[in-house]
């Protein structure tokens, strides 16, 4: 009974999230009669879509208009047509992408994972340590998932090639961040869910990190090299889109550095200067 009471806390929390998001976006008659699982999926779908458009539009407005020619040369700005195509691909996949956090919440609500509801259950030191381990697992998993999507030719041809049509600076934009084949996008986010079974993780932190992916992927497709070592920023990821065999990592360069797949944008810049001279 105590266990049932504990897992009920997760159910109550997700129901609260559903009420907050759906209650502000839709008439109650449209969603209150839906089963809890479908309410959660609808909340994730609408939240993910809003996050994609808000982050994409704000970032494009800033770098292409407010800072026109400061960060991105005029001839490297993607066309409106290219960005609309990226939005179209992302929107086709969004209903499927948002199934993943919905399923992970279902597993958490049923007590199948190591999730906990409050930091007070473990303390701040343990929270930080568990979060660090969780992020290492995610970094390791996404690196290998991404690399195999390149190395296993049928996976590349039928899944990952959808994303790699954006292979030049003037075809990459923040809207390309979620322009994947649906299964490709899900596979690259699956390490977030696998980690739930391996390390205790705070529930809201897990959900927050999953949705942070939308913001992070927008950032790493803007082609602007921020040079914040050891962050795997857009400078590194632009090289990935042009060479197809470097910089598979997600948040950091560590996996690529350890496994010999790292290519530094600074080295690329030096080589270009040498060729000019």
TrEMBL record:
<comment type="similarity">
    <text>Belongs to the sterol desaturase family.</text>
</comment>
<dbReference type="GO" id="GO:0005506">
    <property type="term" value="F:iron ion binding"/>
</dbReference>
<keyword id="KW-0472">Membrane</keyword>
<dbReference type="GO" id="GO:0008610">
    <property type="term" value="P:lipid biosynthetic process"/>
</dbReference>
<dbReference type="Pfam" id="PF04116">
    <property type="entry name" value="FA_hydroxylase"/>
</dbReference>
<protein>
    <recommendedName>
        <fullName>Fatty acid hydroxylase domain-containing protein</fullName>
    </recommendedName>
</protein>
<feature type="transmembrane region" description="Helical">
    <location>
        <begin position="45"/>
        <end position="65"/>
    </location>
</feature>
<dbReference type="GO" id="GO:0016020">
    <property type="term" value="C:membrane"/>
</dbReference>
<keyword id="KW-1133">Transmembrane helix</keyword>
<dbReference type="InterPro" id="IPR050307">
    <property type="entry name" value="Sterol_Desaturase_Related"/>
</dbReference>
<keyword id="KW-0812">Transmembrane</keyword>
<feature type="transmembrane region" description="Helical">
    <location>
        <begin position="124"/>
        <end position="145"/>
    </location>
</feature>
<dbReference type="GO" id="GO:0016491">
    <property type="term" value="F:oxidoreductase activity"/>
</dbReference>
<feature type="domain" description="Fatty acid hydroxylase">
    <location>
        <begin position="132"/>
        <end position="261"/>
    </location>
</feature>
<dbReference type="InterPro" id="IPR006694">
    <property type="entry name" value="Fatty_acid_hydroxylase"/>
</dbReference>
